[in-house]
Specification:
The complex is a heterotrimer of chains A (40), B (546) and C (145). Chain A is 75% helix and 0% strand. By secondary structure, chain A is mainly alpha-helical. In chain C, the strands form two sheets. In chain C, strands 1, 2, 3, 5 and 8 form a five-stranded mixed β-sheet that branches. A five-stranded mixed β-sheet of chain C has the order 4-10-9-6-7, with no helix packed on it. The chains are: A mainly alpha (40), B mainly alpha (546), C alpha+beta (145).
């Protein structure tokens, strides 16, 4: 890589995993809301 | 590269018309939050007229004018080829006349049908003809850009399409595929119907044709913002685009997946089999994929810049990014808002989960984060950037731009949170809640919180307009001969890219095929299960119009 | 394609895969679904409530500019309601708050949903599609005793 130490996007991977966890939490909160609304 | 004086001023005129539309549009946005929260209640005929203006001016006029102007700059500075001057003027004035016709009909309260203009609510023919001219005007710009690209292709045989131009091709392909739907709806049904030539109309058919257009429309807005994030932001932030191949594949995925997904706006509609709604849900999940790739690739590009600037650690590198720079401030605020816009969009698209949020305040909560922030803030940042590059004038006050960007982010997060709480409780969107008898006190509190967010957003927009006008009033620093756009270099370059990734006929062909496959059963259902009805209605009287 | 891009794509595909399976599973296994295409029920001209049995009711909701017919329905707790909606004039929405029942009422088309009311209480339904200057006042109630 023309003398440049290989850049590994560790920070971007950490951000992406955090985003995916946030997405799962927010999504499932509405998913259970649907089950509760349709159940009652 | 040398950009002719006529084009530099024409691009600025596209931005002036767009920002003029915004400055009227945001006023009605403010009036709406005040009216919905009961702080200052508008009578319904003014509220719904304002709501139509807010939608049409912000989401159609501003976006279309800005995008056409912005992509002219990208096309010429990337291909080093000249656009056709006559077509630039023809496109601009066609769009302008269309906007004036539609604008006048809304201002005279003859087209209070909101930005989706669902029949049997009937607007004056001037509104539909105006909307048609705006779209036809943009088609002329697409023609101009295509001819310029084909000329570049002939002059550079065997050369790969440059990255930013891949984005332009993707944007205008999505736009052409999208506008087929609304063109059929308006030309074959709404105009003859509003002129009285045709007596009846099929509302479900009109809805289906509109939402064939309605979803890819949002990618027509979003992809120019992606273009700036991929190909300009990394350089401004002091780094490189992490992977050129990823960017190219993302824009190609949008060509293929943008249009065969319209039913996720129609999950609650009658007359369409739920299986086809499920198929469109699947393709909507597929079109979410390129946005995930974008989140990762831009984060990696910014990390590269931060590390070069001495950033280290797993999370602390974010501190080393140029947060004070106005352009970066607009982009990063756009992207932070878009993180929450993305997940709320996936909730909307999630088939039966849509039953919880359909047509509720959750939906404007969602799209003020996407088109209202991710696209809007990016375009505001680009407006200042282009004003500086094309007119040679210094920006009035860069720190004011930075402040306005972060202020909008704070305001829109508060606004969207409040609207989404209302949405979970089932409170409808597009409704003058200030006069609604069914609001409970705690629901009204959520709306007041949303109003506070809306007020902050309004202040941020005013600060931007001050900054923009101030820039125009500055004296010319230097005569602009060479227009240099900061195109980012790539860390991972496209070395041995297979030619399929540069073959536009293949991807456009696949896109058309998918639209045919996904929409044939839908129209079959609509024709066998829904009917034409007589009579058009104005929003002011329950009696059908003569 | 760079190795880390591939990891990101696979992670994203897994996430939306889980979402899609969870959603389709709910529709198939628990019958929590979206409205579908029905051709055995022509668009009707007036709203009414039909008692099919003690615990089963059929309700025809006619949405019109700016009132639901009927806009007040009383049923015993535990009863199942089969709801049909259409419109006499422009497009309306029919949404029962807190029950995730959300139907469009489109002129020239008939929509259908089934919902069970176990807990007693007052369930509010509202029009959630702009239908003119009276739109914000258009609502009704289902009283479950």
């Amino acid at each position: 890589m023309k003398g440049e130490e290989r850049f590994i996007p560790k920070g971007a991977i950490a951000f992406f995993i955090a985003m995916i966890l946030l997405y799962a939490i927010m999504w499932f909160s509405i998913y259970f809301l649907l089950i509760i609304y349709r159940g009652g | 590269m040398r950009m002719e004086k006529y084009l530099r001023s024409m691009v600025m005129w596209h931005i002036y018309v767009g920002l003029l539309a915004i400055s009227v549009g945001v006023i009605f946005g403010l009036l709406q939050v005040l009216s919905r929260s009961g702080i200052y209640v508008l009578p319904p005929n003014i509220y719904y007229q304002g709501l139509t203006l807010h939608g049409v001016l912000n989401a159609v006029v501003f976006t279309t004018f800005f995008i056409v102007g912005f992509l002219y700059v990208i096309t010429e500075t990337t291909l080093k080829e000249k656009l056709n001057k006559g077509l630039v003027y023809l496109s601009f004035f066609t769009m302008l006349i269309g906007t004036l016709l539609a604008g006048i009909s809304i201002l005279t309260n003859k087209a209070t049908v909101l930005y989706t203009f669902y029949p049997p609510l009937k607007a004056s023919p001037m509104f539909y003809i105006g909307a048609t001219l705006l779209i036809v005007g943009s088609w002329i710009a697409v023609l101009n850009t295509s001819l310029t690209f084909l000329r570049w292709r002939r002059n550079n045989p065997g050369q790969k399409t440059p990255g930013p131009m891949v984005a332009v091709i993707s944007i205008y392909t999505v736009w052409m595929l999208a506008t087929i739907g609304v063109a059929i709806e308006v030309l074959f049904f709404l105009i003859p119907w509003s002129l009285g030539i045709v007596k009846s109309i099929n509302p479900e058919l009109a809805r289906t044709l509109f939402w064939w257009f309605g979803h890819p429309l949002v990618y027509f807005w979003l992809l120019p913002a992606y273009l700036a994030w991929y190909y300009i932001l990394p350089k401004v932030a002091g780094g490189k685009l992490y992977s050129e191949v990823a960017a190219r594949i993302v824009f190609i995925m949008f060509i293929v997946f943008s249009t065969p997904v319209g039913l996720h706006h129609q999950y609650s509609d009658p007359g369409i089999t739920n299986v086809w709604k499920g198929v469109h849900a699947f393709f909507t999940f597929m079109v979410a994929l390129p946005s995930f790739i974008t989140a990762f690739t831009i984060a990696a590009s910014l990390e590269y810049a931060a590390r070069k600037n001495g950033g280290n650690g797993l999370f602390s590198w974010w501190k080393k990014l140029p947060w004070g720079n106005y352009f970066f401030a607009y982009m990063i605020s756009a992207m932070i808002a878009f993180i929450f816009g993305g997940i709320s969009g996936i909730v909307n698209a999630s088939y039966n989960m849509n039953q919880v949020v359909h047509n509720t305040s959750w939906v404007p909560g969602h799209f003020h984060l996407t088109v209202g922030s991710a696209v809007f803030l990016t375009f505001l940042g680009l407006s200042l950037y282009l004003a500086n590059k094309l007119t040679g004038k210094k920006i009035f006050n860069e720190k004011l731009g930075t402040l306005s960007a972060y202020l909008w982010l704070i305001g829109v997060l508060i606004f969207s949170w409040g609207m989404m709480q209302l949405g979970r409780a089932g409170i409808p969107r597009r409704t003058n809640l200030g006069l609604a008898p069914y609001m409970t006190p705690e629901e009204r509190i959520f709306m007041i919180i949303a109003a506070v967010g809306g007020i902050i957003m309004f202040i941020s927009a005013v600060l931007f307009l001050i900054n923009f006008v101030g820039t125009l009033l500055n004296k010319k620093e230097k005569e602009v001969e060479l227009v240099e756009i900061d195109y980012a270099d790539a860390y991972y370059k496209e070395t041995n890219l297979s030619p399929i990734w540069d073959n536009w006929k293949v991807w456009i062909g696949i896109a058309i095929l998918l639209i045919i496959i996904n929409y044939t059963p839908v129209f079959y259902d609509v024709f066998r299960a829904t009917y034409f009805v007589e009579g058009g209605y104005s929003p002011f009287s329950p009696l059908p119009m003569k | 394609m760079d190795r880390y891009e591939n990891i990101a794509i696979r992670a994203a595909l897994m996430l939306i895969g889980v979402f899609f399976i969870a959603v389709i599973g709910l529709a198939i296994l628990k019958g929590i679904d979206v409205p579908t295409c029905i051709t055995d029920f022509p668009p009707f001209k007036e709203g009414k409530v039909i008692k099919l049995s003690d615990k089963e009711y059929q309700v025809q909701i006619l949405a019109r500019m700016w009132r639901f017919e009927p806009n007040r329905i009383e049923i015993p707790a535990g009863s199942k309601v089969i709801i049909y909606t259409t419109s006499a004039d422009v497009q309306h929405g029919f949404e029962i708050e807190g029950k995730a029942v959300n139907l469009m009422a489109i002129p020239g088309a008939v929509n259908k949903a089934e919902v069970v009311f176990n807990k007693p209480g007052t369930y509010r339904f509202v029009c959630n599609e702009f239908c003119g200057i009276g739109h914000q006042a258009m609502y009704g109630e289902i009283i479950v005793k």
